[in-house]
Amino acid sequence: MTERSDDVSHFLSYPRFIWRALVESTDGNIYFYVWMTLLTALALVGANAWAHQVADGMGITGMSDHVSWGLYIANFTFLVGVAAGGVMMVIPAYLYDDHEMHDVVIIGEILAIAALIMALLFVIVDLGRPDRFWHLIPGLGQFNFPMSMLAWDVIVLNGYLLLNLHIVGYLLYKRYRSETPDRRWYIPFVFLSIVWAISIHTVTAFLYSGLGGRYFWNTAILAPRFIASAFVTGPAIIIISLQLVRYFTKLPIPKGPIQTLISIIKVTILINLFLLGAELFTEFYTGGSHAKSATYLFFGVGEHTALVPWIWTAIVLNIAAAIMFLHPLAREHFAFLNIACILAFIGLWIEKGMGLIIPGFIPSPLGEIVEYTPTLAEWQITVGIWAFGLMIYTVALKIAVRILTGESNLQRDQKPKKKAVDDSGSA
Amino acid sequence: MTEPTESQTTPDRPEPDDETGFTRRTALKALGATLGAAAFARAMAPLRSWSSEQSMDEFLQQHYKEMSPEEMEQVLRRLEQETLEQYGADVHIEDLPPQEGVQFGYALNLAVCNGCRKCAEACHKENNHDRSTNNSYIRVFEMEQGSLDFEKGTADYDHTVPAAGKYYMPVQCLQCDNPPCVDVCPVEATWKEEDGVVVVDYNWCIGCRYCEAACPYHARRFNWKKPEVPTQEVNPVQAYLANRIRPAGVVEKCHFCLHKTRKGEMPACQQACPTGARVFGNMLDPDSDIRWVLENKRVYVLKEDLGTRPRFFYFFD
Ligand code: SF4
Ligand code: SF4
C-alpha cells in the first residue's frame, strides 16, 4: 500500500486528503464567505419551496395535464448539455496531447460534476413522488430497461457522474501526494468519459425525439442539435470560470486553453444555428399540423403568445454571440469575450430549455392550446438548485486549484506537526 | 486530521502557532454550521406534516406484480383503512385479475353521440375523481362538420347540444395494443393486462409524467394534489388497479371500469350514455355487440398512422 515517492500509507493520506478538502471548502476570504452565504440562502429558499411542493402537491407549479413538464425539465435538459460540454476540454487535451490543457481539464470535469448534480436534482424535484425514488434503482426497484429512455438516462447520467468523480478525485489525490498519476488509472477513463459525454446528451435527446405523438420533438436532428449546443455552453462557462480562477487564485492560466475553447465555440455555435435553421425550414415549409408547435413558439397562435418573447430573445442572443465569437476582438479582449459567453449561455438556456420543452406540449395532441407560465415556487426551486450547484462548483474549484498550485499538499499538511501524524496513525 | 478541530482545542493537545486565529475561525465555522443546519430544518419543516401521513408499509410496498396474494391482501386492507381515515368512507377494495378468454373492445357511434357529456359525468362519479377539478377520463370534443381535425374542435363548449353544424367526439384512453405510455415508464408502473386494459399501479408510480408526454391522445391525468371527494359521494366499490382514490403525485387513466367490467358489468360511461352511442364488450365473444359493430360497421381509430393500435373504435352509422 505504500508508494515510492513518499512512504505515507493511503490509509493515512486519504483521510487527510478528504479533511484538507473539507477545510478548503469552509475557509476563505471575505468574498468567499459572502458568496457562499448568498448561495446558501438561495438554496434554502429553494429547499423550502420544494418542501411545500411535496407537502401540498405539484398543483403549486404552473404545470397542468396539458403542459406536464415545465421549468424543471427545461433546466434538466440544458444542464445535461453543460455536463456534456464540460468534457469538451478533455478532447484536445488528451486526443491531441495538448499539455497546456491538462490542468485546465480538471476544471471542465468539475463543471460536469456540478452540472450533473443539478440535472439530477431537477429530475427529483419534478417527481410527483420523490419518496418512491428507490423504484428507479436497478435491482431494488423495477427498472424498465432497455425499453424506457428515462431508465437509460438514469444509467448514463449516474455513470457519467461516477466517471468524472473518479477522474477528478484520482488526479487531485495524486497531486496532493505529489505523485505522477498512473496513466492506467485515468487515461482509459478519460477516453470513456469523452464517449460517455456524447451519450448522455444523445440519450436525453432520445427521451423526447422518441415520442411519435409530439411532432415538435419527433425529429432525428434533435440529438445533433443537443450536442452542438452542449459544445457551446460547456466551453462558454469554462472560459468564464478560467478567468475567475485567474483573478481570484494563484493558478497560472495560460492563454492557450482559452484560445482553443474559442476556436471550438466558433464552429459549434454556427453548427447549432445551422441545425436550428434546418429544423425550422422543415417545419415551416411543410406546414400543416406538424408545424403548429413551431408556429406557436415563434409567432403565437391567436392570443396565445407566451413563448414568443422568449424565443426571439434566444435567437437574437445566439446570433449576436455567434457574431461576437467570430470577431477577432474575442481573442484579444476578455470583456468582449465574456459578454459573448454570457449571451450564448442565456440564448441556449432559453432555446434548449423553455423553447424546446414547452412547445412540445402546445398544442396538445388533441389540438388544445393551454399555455404555461412558471409560478414563483418553480422559480424559487430552480434558483435554489442553481445556487446549490454553484456552491458545489465553487468549493470543488477551490479545492482543486489549491491542490494544483501546491498550496494544499500532503507534505505541507504533515510537516508542521509531525506528532499529529503519529496520533492519527494510532487512531 | 492535522487541522485542529474543536476536540483538539483541549489542553492536552498542543495548539499550532497561529492558535488564536484557528480557534476563532473554528468557533465561527461551528456557529455557521449550526445556524445552517437550523435554517435547513426550518426550510424543510413543511415535509413533517406530509411524512406523518405516509406509512412505512406504503414506502416499502413492492410492485403489483411482485406481491404474493397474502401481501396483496394486507395492502388492500391497509388502503381501505387509509380511505376510512382520510375520507371517512367505508370502502371495499378488491384485486380483480383479468378473465380468461376476454379481450375488451369499445366502439363509439359518432352519428348518434349528441355531446351531452353524460359519460364524462358518470366517469367522474364512478371513479372517485377529484371534485374540485371536475376531472374525468373522458373529454368530449365538439367538432366541426366536415373535419376530423381536433384543432378546429373544442372541449370547452358551453351551450345546448347538439349545435348546428357540429358533431361530437368523446375521447378517453384507447387502451392501445402498442402503447407508447407503457414503453416509456422507467419503473414499469404502467402496463397492459391480458384483457387489453392498460393499468397503473398508483402505489408504484413515481410521478415523472413521462407517460403523459408520450400518450398521443391526452388520455392520462396527473394528481396535482390530493383528490377531494366528500364522504357521502365516495363510490365504495373499488379495485386496486381501478377506481380507488388515487394518492397525490401519481398518474391515472381510464381502465375501462375494470372493477365493473371484470365482473361482467358494463363500464359506467356506457351505462350513462342516453343515445346508445357506446358499444362495449368482449371482442372474442361472437355474439357480443362490439363484435357485431366491428364486423358490420366501417370503423376507424384515432391517429392510426402512429401505430399505437387502439382498441377504441369510432364509426358513423
Ligand atoms: S391512449 Fe394513451 S394512455 Fe391510453 S394506452 Fe394509448 S397511449 Fe396509453
Ligand atoms: S408518471 Fe408514473 S406511470 Fe407514468 S411514466 Fe412516470 S412512473 Fe410511469
Care to describe what's here?
The complex is a heterodimer of chains A (427) and B (317). Chain A is an all-alpha fold. Chain A has one domain (28-409): Formate dehydrogenase/DMSO reductase fold (Up-down Bundle). Chain A contains 16 helices and no strands. Chain A has helices at residues 10-26, 30-56, 71-86, 90-95, 101-126, 149-176, 183-209, 222-248, 255-286, 292-299, 308-326, 329-332, 334-357, 376-404, 410-414, 418-426. In chain A, helix 3 packs antiparallel against helix 7, helix 5 (101-126) packs across helix 8 (222-248) and helix 9 (255-286) packs across helix 11. Residues 1-5 and 418-427 of chain A have low confidence and may be disordered. With 317 residues, chain B is α+β, with helices and mostly antiparallel strands. Chain B has two domains: 1-44; 104-315, 2-Layer Sandwich (Alpha-Beta Plaits), CATH 3.30.70.20. Chain B has ten helices and twelve strands. Chain B has helices at 19-43, 46-53, 56-60, 69-87, 118-126, 180-184, 210-214, 258-261, 268-272, 289-296, and strands at 92-94, 104-109, 139-144, 166-171, 190-192, 198-200, 221-222, 237-239, 251-252, 278-282, 299-300, 312-315. In chain B, strand 5 (190-192) and strand 6 form a beta hairpin. Chains A and B meet through helix 1, helix 2, helix 6 and helix 16 of A and helix 1, helix 2, helix 6, helix 7 and strand 7 of B. The structure holds iron/sulfur cluster (2 copies). The site of one iron/sulfur cluster has 14 residues of chain B, from helix 6. The site of one iron/sulfur cluster (SF4) has 14 residues of chain B, from helix 7.
